[in-house]
Specification:
The structure holds 2 protein chains of 2 kinds. By secondary structure, chain A is an alpha+beta fold. Chain A has 3 domains: 171 residues, Beta-Lactamase (2-Layer Sandwich), CATH 3.30.450; 169 residues, Beta-Lactamase (2-Layer Sandwich); 99 residues, 2-Layer Sandwich (Beta-Lactamase), CATH 3.30.450. Chain A has 11 helices and 21 strands. The termini of chain A are far apart. Chain B is an alpha+beta fold. The radius of gyration of chain B is 38 Å and the shape is elongated. The chains are: A alpha+beta, B alpha+beta.
């Protein structure tokens, strides 16, 4: 009899299914406390075509689980429920407002001989609670960024306002969730900062201050280069979610015309006698269009007493993008946009080329630009700074990683371990393949390194990581 | 209305007996002395100046009308010219004979136009046929000719500061021949020609000595020519043409000052500014030849400020009887009896006053709206520091607040001067270190002028009060501080930590911790121990400050002790231990400190670990795990025994 290795078989005949979204709903138990009114609790349900009674049943089940687990710990009810086929995540976003996300576990379909139905193997252990729990919280943060809290909509117009808001937002947003490519970075929800020398940074400061002085309406400014943050006038938590929106949604949508080099998008504007490449990413696509609409997305950010609503103007010149945030109570006019364009366009163009020049100069000094020797993920909880040499550039659709999902899973597991204790820790794992995975936690910082060294021993791996720390992290207090 | 007179006469003028039929008044530019000669000297000569304190009074015989009278340098010998042929000398050195002696000019048929002392005993006669340099021997009462030069002379001018004598030659008088005197020698410089607006036909003397003056501006000698407007030539108004007269090389036309008017003018130089007095409008204009004007042709200058008159002056009534009720008498300015001398002297012979002209900087602030130009102007003035600082305060506060680009321009200009000074200072220090013998010729310690406004000046006089002012938007405060830091960085000047502290203080006051975090993240606030300590103190209000502070201490690499202290205070004993091991100073630290901290945690395992770690160190260093008495760890040993028993102690290896 021919012996076929299982792996070969897997490659040729097995069918792999990645985790996917089964359902997603928002409910508030206090909206339908009596029997027969259960439907009133449901504020949003995806997929919408599910039959009403099933919706009610599913919501009721979640409610029951949460209630039941509360008896064990009133302050910390269940956050997730593991079943063979799927996993449910519960999140009380606001008082009594619950968001539930149900994810189908990844599975392998193995065909059987003789026309029997294929065997399905659920890989329920492949899904990490921390990752999808974070994804769920991010869904809410993103909703809140563009719509404010649920409570706010309720105050303003009751469920009649809240329900359409939820539908409008989540209908589109859920389509952009790519659950199969969620990983440790979603847990961190970090911000990638653009490395920059002091002088150029100060020039950017100067630019931001001057624009804010000149255009008094501008309340906050954020400055990004190459999709990486340089300056945020917003507070950290607001910037974190805005950054997520910019880098995973807005910028990818606008990068295509630039890459394609279509002259319509890159034709320099002439303002005064200065050429500039500035353009609006939100609001009017073309200022000269007589029918241009001067409507900008609105966002909600925290203030000392609650929240405030702002227009979000995103303006870009070459690789530099600036977000200007203006109180939503102000009507934005064509004149204002023209003034902004004339003021910011030339300055930003100049600044962008300055940064570019400085950046290439620094790169030349630090050595040729080769594939990073180490694959690592770094995250600092204090400033949300995140750095990954594992992830490719994010696009609108997927975030690509250069390592096998198994290794990403190990990283996630180590992260869970770290989250359990306050102490500094270090974990070294020898993975199934030739890989070593090292996790280190020092104070508020976490570092994960993946090494591919055949026959390396523990000591050598440790030395290797020390080398990495010495070269990449020598200017911070990171204990080895 | 705010004060606008930016020129004034000095408060304490030199007073002398005013000119009259019996009293002749002379002024010597070299010694800046006024001579009041009564009745040809017979009834007394009073010499005053350069300040009012020193005056000399004497009598001399009336041997005819005095044409010119001057002391040699140091008041050693008095020279008096009474005829057109000779000059008489009188010794003023004590113990030397006081009898007059005389010297006639050597050239036949020449008449003496005047004379100048070039030293305490050297004198040059200027005649219509040339110049004669003499040495005077007061002890012997004799005079010896050193050198002479013959050429025809219309008139002359002498600049005592540079010892340059300028002779007008040629028929029109516009060919000027300069000579320079140095250590008893006379050297001829290259002659040059003044361009006349109209060439007269037939040729006649057209360049008057009244229209020429010599003065040093920014350390360079210039011949200033007051070129009157002429209807025939293409010049609608008068101008002052400056000819640069270098020590070596050719004299070249270098600057043109546009007067934009016509009439009678007089020139002074004050604080390197050319002051042009206009008699008919009774106003004065000032020009700064170092101010570049982009909208004008090369080296053509417009007045720095609008024309204003000299500040009204009241003559204080002094004298034997002071009448308190009588107010001081206003003095007539721009009077026709005024004589103007270089560089900054105005004399009213009819009233008996000698004033020094002065520039008052505060009024200029309100007359120049362009703060960048104002700074360029102020930075070149002598007593500019407080005015500059007040301008800085002005543009940051109140109604005349400038926009950020203006603030930036002002900072950049200040820091440019500051930087040049620092660089010069550094060069000097380097040169001194490499040995004073080498190229010792040019190495002079750079002079710190008032225009050098350093960080501490800005901090003390401008920024600290600005940041504390109520009602100023904190956004603007931070923007200004960052702009100043940017400007310093741009000039590659190391920023002092107190500026960073000011930034931090302001940010903390307004709860802008995330901004602060970002600044530190990009190392905009440079690392220093004081800053790290300040951050540590912020930890209770902003926990991430702890991490920022530790990072900073780590980067300083000289603060390992501080890091250990911080970690121990946080009871991170293992972390501290790992840290000192990583920096290789494990062998030198005090065991007691660590054991104390470990004991305080009440974590027995931790105490065990730390204790054993130090025992191992002792073993390694001294071959014995026991602690030395000097380490004062007795109580920890007792504690260890209590917890884990005697047998758990590491024993000395028996040989």
């Amino acid at each position: 009899m021919l012996i076929v290795s299982p792996r070969m078989a897997a490659v040729t005949q097995e069918k792999q299914y990645t985790p996917s979204l089964l359902s997603f709903f928002v409910y508030n138990p206090s909206f339908g406390p009596r029997e027969g009114e259960e439907e009133k609790k449901i504020l949003f349900y995806h997929p919408s075509e599910v039959e009403k009674n099933e919706k009610i049943r599913n919501v009721g089940l979640c409610e029951a689980i949460v209630q039941f687990t509360r008896t064990f710990c009133p302050t910390k009810p269940a956050k997730s429920l593991h079943t063979q086929k799927n996993r449910q995540f519960f999140f009380e976003a606001e008082d009594s407002y619950w968001i539930v996300m149900i994810v189908k576990n990844p599975m392998v379909e193995k065909p059987n001989k003789d026309g029997k139905p294929p065997t399905i193997e659920y890989q329920e252990e492949e899904v990490l609670d921390t990752v999808y729990g974070a994804v769920l919280r991010q869904c809410y943060s993103m909703y809140k960024l563009f719509n404010g809290t649920f409570g706010r909509a309720m105050e303003a117009g009751g469920v009649e306002l809240l329900i359409p808001k939820l539908e409008k937002f989540f209908y589109r947003y859920l389509q952009t969730l790519h659950l199969q490519s969620c990983d440790l970075l979603d847990v961190f929800g970090g911000i990638s900062f653009f490395p920059l020398d002091k002088m150029t940074y100060l020039k950017i400061q100067s630019f931001v201050n001057r624009v804010e002085e000149n255009l008094r309406l501008v309340k906050y400014t954020a400055f990004l280069y190459n999709d990486q943050l340089i300056w945020s006038g917003l507070e950290q938590d607001d910037m974190r979610i805005l950054y997520k929106y910019l880098t995973t949604s807005l910028f990818p949508r606008h990068s295509e015309p630039e890459l394609a080099g279509r002259d319509s998008a890159l034709r320099p504007e002439v303002s005064g006698n200065l050429l500039h490449y500035g353009r609006f990413l939100t609001g009017p696509a073309n200022l000269k269009d007589p029918d241009a609409k001067f409507r900008f997305p609105r966002i909600f950010v925290h203030t000392e007493d609650g929240s405030e609503e702002l227009h979000l103007i995103v303006y870009k010149a070459m690789s530099a993008a600036v977000c200007f945030m203006i109180s939503a109570s102000v009507e934005l006019t064509r004149e204002f946009c023209e003034r902004l364009d004339a003021l910011v366009g030339p300055q930003l163009t100049l600044l962008a080329s300055d940064i570019c020049e400085q950046f290439t100069l620094n790169r030349r000094i630090s050595g040729p630009d080769k594939e990073p020797q180490f694959k690592f993920i770094y995250f600092n909880h204090m400033n949300l700074a995140e750095k990954s040499t594992i992830h490719m550039r994010k696009t609108a659709s997927v975030s690509l990683t250069s390592v096998h999902p198994d290794l990403m899973k190990i990283l996630g597991d180590i992260n869970c371990d770290f989250a359990r204790v306050d102490e500094d820790e270090e974990v070294i794992v020898k993975a199934m393949t030739d890989y070593w995975v090292v996790g280190k936690k020092s104070d508020q910082r976490e570092l994960y390194v993946i090494l591919n060294q055949k026959n390396a021993n523990l000591i050598e791996v440790n030395e290797e990581v020390k080398r990495l720390c010495a070269t990449q992290f020598n200017n911070i207090f990171f204990l080895d | 209305m705010s004060e606008e007179h930016y020129l004034e006469l000095c408060e304490s003028p030199v007073q002398f007996e005013h000119a009259s039929s019996v009293n002749n008044v002379f002024f010597d530019e070299a010694n800046k002395q006024v001579f009041a000669v009564r009745s040809g000297g017979a009834t007394g000569v009073v010499v005053k100046g350069p300040d009012d304190k020193n005056s000399i009074a004497f009598r001399m015989d009336d041997k005819g009308e005095v044409k010119c009278i001057k002391f040699s340098i140091g008041n050693k010998i008095l020279a008096v010219q009474r005829t057109s042929k000779s000059v008489d000398f009188i010794n003023f050195i004590p113990d030397y004979p006081h009898t007059e002696f005389s010297q006639e000019c050597k050239m036949k048929n020449a008449s003496v136009l005047g004379f100048c002392w070039t030293n305490w005993n050297e004198i040059v006669f200027i005649t219509d046929q040339g110049i004669e340099l003499y040495q005077v021997f007061p002890d012997k009462r004799s005079v010896k000719l050193i050198k002479s030069q013959s050429l025809s002379v219309n008139w002359y001018q002498y600049c005592p500061e540079t010892a340059v004598l300028l002779l007008s030659t040629s028929g029109q008088g516009n060919v000027l021949q300069p000579f320079v005197f140095r250590n008893g020698t006379l050297s001829k410089m290259t002659k040059f020609e003044i361009e006349l607006p109209v060439v007269p036909k037939p040729a006649k003397l057209s360049l008057s000595e009244r229209d020429i003056a010599m003065a040093t501006i920014y350390g360079q000698l210039y011949v200033m020519y007051l070129k009157h407007h002429s209807r025939t030539a293409n010049s609608p108004s008068a101008e002052v043409v400056l000819y640069h007269l270098p020590r070596e090389g050719l004299c070249k036309k270098s600057h043109v000052l546009k007067l934009n008017t016509t009439g009678k003018f007089a020139l002074n130089i004050v604080d390197n500014l050319v002051v042009v007095h206009h008699q008919s409008t009774q106003t004065s204009l000032i020009y700064d030849i170092h101010l570049r004007e982009p909208d004008c042709a090369l080296n053509t200058h417009q007045p720095v400020l609008p024309a204003r008159s000299i500040h009204p002056y009241r003559i204080p009534l002094t004298g034997p009887v002071v009448v308190p009720s009588q107010p001081p008498v206003p003095c007539q300015l721009y009077s026709s009896s005024w004589s103007v001398f270089q560089p900054d002297i105005i004399i009213s012979a009819s009233e008996g006053y000698l004033w020094y002209l002065q520039v008052k900087l505060p009024p200029t602030v309100n007359l120049q709206q362009d703060k960048g130009k104002l700074m360029d102007f102020l930075l070149r003035r002598r007593d500019c520091k407080m005015v500059i600082l007040s301008v800085c305060s002005q543009i940051l506060e109140g109604g005349e607040r400038g926009s950020l680009p203006v603030v930036a321009t002002v900072f950049d200009k200040l820091n440019q001067v500051y930087k040049e000074y620092l660089e010069a200072e550094q060069m000097y220090t380097l040169a001194m270190e490499s040995g004073p013998s080498r190229n010792s010729a040019a190495q002079k310690r750079p002079v710190r002028t008032q225009a050098v406004i350093d960080q501490s000046d800005m901090y003390t006089h401008v920024l600290s009060s600005f940041t504390e002012r109520k009602g100023v938007c904190h956004k603007f405060i931070i923007a200004v501080l960052m702009e100043y830091i940017r400007s310093l960085n741009q000039s590659q000047i190391t920023v002092q930590h107190y500026l960073y502290e000011l930034v931090i203080k302001t940010l903390v006051q307004h709860n802008r911790f995330y901004m602060l975090h970002q600044f530190l993240q990009y190392h905009v606030l440079s690392d220093s121990k004081p800053l790290a300590c300040l951050l540590l103190s912020l930890e209770s209000t902003y926990p991430p400050a702890h991490q920022l502070s530790l990072d900073m201490l780590k980067r300083l690499s000289t603060a390992n002790d501080e890091i250990v202290e911080v970690l121990l205070s946080k009871q991170q004993v293992l972390g501290a231990l790992r840290f000192i091991r990583s920096v290789g100073s494990h062998d030198n630290v005090s065991a007691r400190k660590f054991l104390d901290a470990a004991q305080q945690t009440s974590d027995q395992m931790l105490f065990y670990t730390v204790f054993r770690s130090f025992q191992q160190r002792n073993q390694r260093l001294r071959g014995n795990p026991a602690f030395n008495p000097g380490e004062h760890c007795e109580e920890h040993v007792v504690h260890f025994k209590q917890l884990f028993g005697e047998q758990s102690l590491m024993k000395a290896a028996t040989a």
